[in-house]
Amino acid sequence: MKRTLIKHVLVSDAIGEPVKVAGWVRTRRDSKGGFSFVEINDGSSFSGIQVIVPGELENYESEVLHVTIGSAIAVEGELVESPGKGQRVEIHATRVTIYGLADPDDYPLQKKRISFEKLRDIAHLRPRTNTFGAVARVRNALAYATHKFYQDRDFLYLHAPMITGSDAEGAGEMFRVTTLEPGAAPQAGGSVDYSQDFFGKPTFLTVSGQLSAETYASALDRVYTFGPTFRAENSNTRRHLAEFWMIEPEVAFADLSDNADLAEDYIRYMFQYVIEKCPDDLAFFDKWVEEGLLDRLHTLATSEFRRITYTEAIAALEKAEGEFEFPVRWGSDLQSEHERYLTEVVFDQPVIVVDYPKDIKAFYMRRNDDGKTVAAMDVLLPGVGEIVGGSQREERHDVLLESIREKGLPEEEYWWYLDLRRFGTVPHAGFGLGFGRMVQFTTGMQNIRDAIPFPRTPNSAEF
Ligand code: 4AD
Ligand code: MG
Question: 426: which residues sit within 8 A by CB, 6+ positions away?
């Protein structure tokens, strides 16, 4: 008999019909009347399904009574209306097949509540918990929503390379990719001779697909990347990962205000999409992880974002009551505490800050006429702070070259990027949205390590 996913069985009208499901046991209760209730979950939905196993089954005593939490089983039986509360249907089993037991003395997921921190040490088992099953489904829905949003708007999905020779952010936070043996690497002039390395030059894991996206936007008008990016920044915070996924749209013939419109539309679309597709998962997060989450998502799904300049942001922060850990000064970057203060306290809504000082932003951002600022934008959300970083790009060849030189970047590495400004250059803009932070925000999970299946952070790359 063919197996049906539990999410479909739960809404099925085929009462009295035969049905087969399979999954992992969440609970087993034995009744004095000589039968058992077994709840199984296959991850297709938040809820599992209740199965009544009659004592008459031939393997009831030999096998069913040994089934414990975490065991993998399949059940064939009849779908019946459930007399119990909390479920519409249940299954009366006619056959139970056991695939794998889970020894209760060893299986770690026995206790009802295990801290998220502890669960990170068993990241291979945590998707079987309510919380991480729900995070996985919301993450999946947000990924699908992303593709749908951009595809519906005629954006082309671009695969940017993961190995690269250029530092897209110019921040020097890159992981090196090499096949040279540490300690036995060929030397030239007192340092490692990378001309003998695999690619004949130093290479790294990419920090951003933006420069590739600009190339394709300069031919195909509008593109987006959606892939993993890597940063060797040693920041042990609850919103940083060493490997994280980013969505980077890039649009030709667009300026900063078009860019901000796109970011707003995209973020609102994602909220609307998960509210519609993951109601059970969100209800769980609302009840157990962050009170008020659903209300907040509903509000954000329709609300306008506030747009202010960096200079206005600094003025608002200077008026703030109380102290910040990092002092507020025109010219220094906004810290997480400042970002959160702006969106949570000052404006109480998502905020887009534009026109940052040129010295704290990347070389590719377009210089504003004031000579001091660039056409940058950061989107800030309450709770997580910066979720999006983007800008209008410098499309003027001479200004870009000046900026590369001013920042002390290796000019020769950017020859092809400069070429885009020599041949048919065009105003264009784009941004990067940190997917992990989006999942974090949408689920209410406090730590980004719990918003990705296998977090990579300093001193941690197990699994
Ligand atoms: O602001 P960032 O560094 O911008 C860029 O990389 C641009 N090249 C994007 C573009 O214009 N195409 O990073 C973009 C976003 C941040 O706003 C943040 O949400 C996320 O990526 N991010 C991280 N997320 C998790 N862990 C980290 N270490 C992150 N660093 C950035
Ligand atoms: Mg940024």
Answer: 218, 252, 253, 395
Residue nearest to atom 25 of ligand 1 (CA): 240
Task: Render pLDDT for 386-405 as a digit per residue (tens, 0 to 9).
Answer: 999 999 999 999 999 999 99
Find residue 191's DSSP bridge partners.
Answer: 188
Residue found under tokens 């019946």:
80
Domains, the chain: 6-100 (2.40.50.140), 126-155+254-450 (3.30.930.10)
Please tell me if the CB atom of residue 352 comes closer than 6 angstroms to any atom of ligand 1.
Answer: no
pLDDT at 86 > cutoff 90:
no
Cβ–ligand 1 distance for 452 under 6 Å, the answer no
Contact 456, 241 (CB under 8 A): yes
How many CB atoms sit inside 10 A of residue 246's CB? 24
> Is the CB of residue 375 below 6 angstroms from any atom belonging to ligand 1?
no
The answer to whether the predicted template modeling score (pTM) of the entire model surpasses 0.85 is: yes
227 lines ligand 1 (CB under 6 A): no
What lies within 8 Å, CB to CB, of 193 at 6+ separation is 185, 186, 187
Percent of the chain past pLDDT 70, that is, above it, reads 100
Joined tokens for residue 66 = 């040994």
The pick from 173, 388, 437, 457 for probing ligand 1's pocket by mutation, whose C-beta has the most ligand atoms within 8 angstroms, reads 437
Reply yes or no on whether the pLDDT at 111 is more than 80: no
- The rounded distance, in Å, linking the Cα atoms of 385 and 238 is 11
Q: 309 pLDDT band (50/70/90 cuts)?
A: very high
Ligand number nearest CA of 243 is: 1
Return the ligand 1 atom nearest residue 378 CA: 17
Q: Residue 65 burial by CB count (10 A; 0-12/13-18/19+): exposed, middle or buried?
A: middle
Alpha helical stretches, state H, 153-243: 210-220
Q: For residue 356, give the ligand nearest its CA.
A: 2
Q: CA gyration radius for the chain?
A: 27
Task: Quote the CA–CA distance of 348 and 346 in Å, as a whole number.
Answer: 6
Query: From atom 30 of ligand 1, which residue's Cα is the shortest distance away?
Result: 240
* Ligand 1 near 248 CB (within 6 A): yes
